[in-house]
């Protein structure tokens, strides 16, 4: 489990408090994507009271808890301060939990999971 951030890095909301309007980290509670510039706002077939909803800062980036739970981690194998800027690696590599330097694989949520808008979380496909 990664440590919790007491405040949203973008809007400064405390854990358990809603993100501010225009926060780039807040996720849409309807489709699980980013709330900023979310398509819901342009759609007319949705109940506007529920479009996007009010996401709270949880202490983690949206999707991190689910990626950790599913054991989906990636490690950057490429140019960088750790391995050297001329290191030519494989790019993002899927690794197991506990690998040093691994971060939760949030991109994989979009391919191997789907947003459950009742539970307000990602579930495996
Ligand atoms: Zn925020
Ligand atoms: Zn939305």
| Biggest sheet descriptor | 3 strands, antiparallel
Describe the strand arrangement of the main beta sheet, using strand numbers.
2-1-3
Total discrete domains: 2
The bound ligands are: zinc ion
What is the overall shape?
globular
User: What order do the helices and strands follow?
Assistant: HEEEHEE
Mean pLDDT over the residues: 91
Low-confidence parts? none
Task: Estimate percent helicity.
Answer: 10-25%
Subunit organisation of the chains: single chain
| Content of β-strand | 15-25%
How many beta-strand segments? 5
Q: How large is the radius of gyration?
A: 16 Å
The structural class is alpha+beta
What separation lies between the terminal Cα atoms? 23 Å
Our count of helices gives 2
Describe the overall structure.
The protein is α+β, with helices and mostly antiparallel strands. It folds into two domains: 1-62, no CATH class; 71-115, no CATH class. It has two helices and five strands, in the order H-E-E-E-H-E-E. The strands form two sheets. A three-stranded antiparallel beta sheet has the order 2-1-3. Strands 4-5 form a two-stranded antiparallel ribbon. A hairpin with a 4-residue loop joins strand 4 and strand 5. The protein is globular and about 50 Å long. The chain binds zinc ion (2 copies). Residues 28, 30-31, 35, 38, 40, 51-52 line the site of one zinc ion. One zinc ion (ZN) binds next to loops.
């Amino acid at each position: 489990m990664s440590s919790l951030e007491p405040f949203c890095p973008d809007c400064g909301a405390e854990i358990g408090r809603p993100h501010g309007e225009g926060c780039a980290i807040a996720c849409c509670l309807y489709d699980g994507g980013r709330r900023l510039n979310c398509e819901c706002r342009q759609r007319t077939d949705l109940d506007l009271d529920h479009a996007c909803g009010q996401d709270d800062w949880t202490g983690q980036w949206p999707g991190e808890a689910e990626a950790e739970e599913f054991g989906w981690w990636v490690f950057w194998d490429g140019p960088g301060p750790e391995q050297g800027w001329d290191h030519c690696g494989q790019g993002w590599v899927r690794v197991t939990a506990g690998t040093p330097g691994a971060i939760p694989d949030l991109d994989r949520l979009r391919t191997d999971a789907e947003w459950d808008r009742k539970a307000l979380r990602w579930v495996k496909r």
